[in-house]
Specification:
alpha/beta, two-stranded antiparallel sheet, 7 helices, binds S-adenosyl-L-homocysteine, 246 residues, eight-stranded mixed β-sheet
Length: 246
């Protein structure tokens, strides 16, 4: 990663302090233990990925708007999904829903190569330019329907889907290697289940990690024109309350 941060040294130190606080107050106490994931969260300048008028809130415990009705995911959600992928440093990773490119940058520090697909051309272009400016050389961003995967680059050891789907898209499951892992929010309610899927000996194991709120997955394996109203209001964060819970 380069040092293209335009902030002056005082501002840079303030952002670094905010990042340390994010790790110590939002991530570690809430179950993020992987030193590699915590280091990556400490290293990526989240303030570079939010709109200029949100910079002061860049390290707060929430998703933030990035335009076109989309959000940059809550830091805890980024760390939770990244940790669940158990990356080794050499993996080829597919990400669906580049958004701002923040999650892409975190993955890039922990993976061999990251392939990221964004549905909205404007966001894809902005993220591509931002990641290049910040010196992330092992990322490939393209616009398109991520539900179809990236067959030319498949298979992947890990797949991260950052938008809520009705079900895990079959083309993505098919693009996992043996032993490959996928994290994906699934469901049609206000809250979705954050699923971890692992492919082993031809079998698919599914486990629920948490509840979350995400923006809807568009395209052929997403919600099409019939996004349920509950999913439409998604945010890309962890739910504070479980459905039916206290
Ligand atoms: N993790 C990102 C935020 C993701 S928000 C970040 O931290 O900035 C979810 C993104 O998924 C949105 O940008 C949305 O446009 C995109 N998206 C929705 N459906 C998609 C699809 N079928 N293929 C690719 N991207 C999709």
């Amino acid at each position: 990663m380069g040092s293209a941060c335009p902030a002056g040294s005082g501002e840079r130190e303030a952002f670094e302090a905010a990042r340390r606080e994010m790790v110590e107050r939002q991530l570690r106490p809430r179950g993020i233990h992987s030193p590699q994931v915590l280091d990556a969260m400490l290293a990526v300048p989240r303030h570079e990925f939010v709109p200029a008028d949100c910079r002061a809130e860049a390290y707060s415990d929430q998703p933030l708007p990035i335009g076109l009705g989309q959000t940059i995911s809550q830091p805890l959600m980024v760390a939770t999904m990244t940790e669940a992928l158990a990356l080794t440093g050499r993996d080829r990773v597919l990400e669906i829903g580049t958004g701002s490119g923040y999650q892409t940058a975190v993955l890039a520090l922990l993976a061999g190569e990251v392939y990221s697909i964004e549905y909205l051309p404007e966001l894809a272009e902005a993220a591509r330019q931002r990641l290049a400016r910040l010196g992330f050389a092992n990322v490939h961003v393209r616009e398109g329907d991520g539900g179809l995967g990236w067959s030319e680059a498949a298979p992947f050891e890990a797949i991260l889907v950052a938008a809520a789907a009705p079900d895990p898209p079959p083309p993505l499951v098919a693009q996992l290697t043996e032993g490959g892992r996928m994290v994906i929010p699934v469901g049609c309610g206000v809250y979705q289940e954050l699923l971890r899927i692992e492919r082993n000996a031809g079998r698919i194991r599914r486990r629920t990690l948490d509840w979350c709120r995400f923006v809807p997955l568009r395209g052929s394996h997403g919600w099409g024109q019939t996004v349920p109203a509950e999913v439409e209001g998604g945010l890309a964060g962890r739910s504070r309350q479980r459905p039916g819970g206290r």
